Amino acid sequence: MNDLHSNQTTNMANSERRATRVFLNNIDSYSSKNIAQFLSSCVVGASLGEGEEEDKHDASSDEPCFQIVGTVANKDAKQESFASEQYWSLSRDELLQCLMRCDVIVYNITEHTDLIDEATWAISALHSEIGHFESPKIFILLSPILTWAMTKPPDPDDPDIPLTEEDYKKRRPHPNFKEHTSTERLVLKLGKTKKSILGTYIVTSGLQYGMGENMFHFFFQTAWLGKLSSVPIFGPGTNNIPAVHVHDLARVVQKIIDHKPKTHYFIAVDDSKSTFEDIVKAIASAVGPGQTEKVLKEDASGNITETELLYLSVNLRIESVFIKERLNINLDFESGIVDNIVRVVEEFKQTRKLLPIKICLLGPPAVGKSTVAEELCKYYKLNHVTVDEAVSEKIRQLEELLERNEKTAENEELLSAAEEKLKAIKNSMLQNGGQLDNQQIIHIIMEKLNSMPCRNQGFVLDGYPKTYSQANELFQDENMEVEDGRATEPKYNKVMIPDCENVAVVEKIIKTVGRPMNYGLSPEEMEEEKKRKEHERHQQLKQEEAENKLRETMENDKFASLLEEWNRNTAEVEKQEHELLEARSVPMRHYLMKYVMPTVVQGLVDCCKVKPDDPVDFLAEHLFRSNPDD
């Protein structure tokens, strides 16, 4: 039966619905972000209806949705569109004021252990301010499944009998998660004093998956990139991992907010009984080539953290009973990650924007198609597909399959088919001078293009098809849908690029195709890129220094040349001025020599003869008396 307050529906019907303010911590982290984003699109009280399919907000409806108020751990975190208020590094007083303005407080300690102290403080502070509440509040603590890690099965004689919420008082945490359990107990204890004013709930979450992944991200990324020949399984992989889709966890939170149930402890896990090995194999098959390999847990360092390894090593058979019986929740991913792997992979690609780029590169022989294809594959991280390599790879795969396996009743049909296929390929090559016939090539190329690496990352098909009929046969079913029919491939952008240099071709193709839709650089590639940029920077500095020196030398040479020319021109001008002055002074000299100098000379001669006391006065008097003009 439903475990709800009897007057809840009546109260909701009689009172006007208003926007409910929901606080979540660290909304820039995987779990809280997805929960907050889900709640922001849910209508307040929508889950109170019986048998509703989906509680998402209709844009044409006036019904209020949950208003999200959240904190972020990263100072530079962008403003989330789903959050009406977003804060960073609040003081305890500021945080308390923020919590007091909210109707629901959700503290998520499933990802970060450093938030346990803050969550403990938050519930204690709210409880101490309970007399100042303007309206009732709900406090929900999201706790990790490792608070049950050391719990013994309910029946030692039958370990397959699962644990349920009814066993929560018997739960035993992993030694590293004792503080989580203490926080759970405190939350439940403080919620018992005035339940009508401050209701407290615990939701213990299985390992969360979906929406781009978090705990299983390493395995998705490894399978996607394909740099390792197989996806590692750390340890034996036989442990049962309780898991839940992050949106199903958000549905549980939504139901608790709307229903305010009398039960205060819930476990949120799906119904799957998948082992660690089952999950990794499903990921490897759906994302990559499907190969897995068991490695020692000690070899996990450098790939995943110790805390992540603890989560992945949990071994529990546990069921969610209360969320079905008392909250009437039908989980969207109820059967688990393995059964829903196609949908989960599609979410992974869409959330992380890992969309395949498919390029068919054609052109006449010896124009550099392969060089261009290699550059595009390097830039976009695509698979380079050529006919010769695809045929060689297919032959090698068939030969390895036949060599590694002996015929048994189970694999006889598979090995016989492989043997016939290999024989047909080799016979065709013998009959056609080492070349395959058209149908064989098309079949091999189609098989290669439909492989997981090519379907996920994309490809550059180099130099094939060569005819219209080959292209029509190869690509006629290209716009296929994935298995569940949810996602379709984007349309092809048909572009013809005229003949030009390879570098220009690559640049034009990149401009046409757009930015890469794949993973960023690996740590090694980032380090290499850093070194390359540093080298380029040094080279640029050296080049600039050399250019500056050359420019300075040229300027000095130019200045010296100009100064020499200036001096030369100045000397020439002075010479010309002297010559002009000489030429203009000739008449004056002639006049002086004819009319002035004889009288002056005679005066000087007479002065020498007479030897007057004042020679100057004598000469002046002589010149005055002897003036030829008188």
Describe what you observe in this structure.
- The chain has 630 residues and is an alpha/beta fold.
- It folds into 3 domains: 344 residues, NAD(P)-binding Rossmann-like Domain (Rossmann fold); 156 residues, Rossmann fold (3-Layer(aba) Sandwich), CATH 3.40.50; 103 residues, no CATH class.
- 47% of the residues lie in helices and 11% in strands.
- A 7-stranded parallel beta sheet has the order 3-2-1-4-5-6-10, sandwiched between helices. Strands 12-14-13 form a 3-stranded parallel beta sheet, sandwiched between helices. A two-stranded parallel ribbon has the order 7-9.
Topology overview:
Elements: H1 8-14, E1 21-24, H2 30-40, E2 67-72, E3 83-88, H3 92-100, E4 104-108, H4 116-128, E5 137-144, H5 178-190, E6 198-205, E7 207-209, H6 217-225, E8 231-234, E9 243-245, H7 246-259, E10 265-268, H8 276-287, E11 292-295, H9 306-312, H10 322-325, H11 341-351, E12 357-361, H12 369-380, E13 383-385, H13 387-404, H14 412-431, H15 438-449, H16 452-456, E14 458-462, H17 468-475, H18 502-513, H19 523-610, H20 615-625
Parallel strand pairs: 1-2, 1-4, 2-3, 4-5, 5-6, 6-10, 7-9, 8-11, 12-14, 13-14
Helix pairs in contact: 2-7, 4-5, 6-8, 12-18, 13-14, 13-15, 19-20
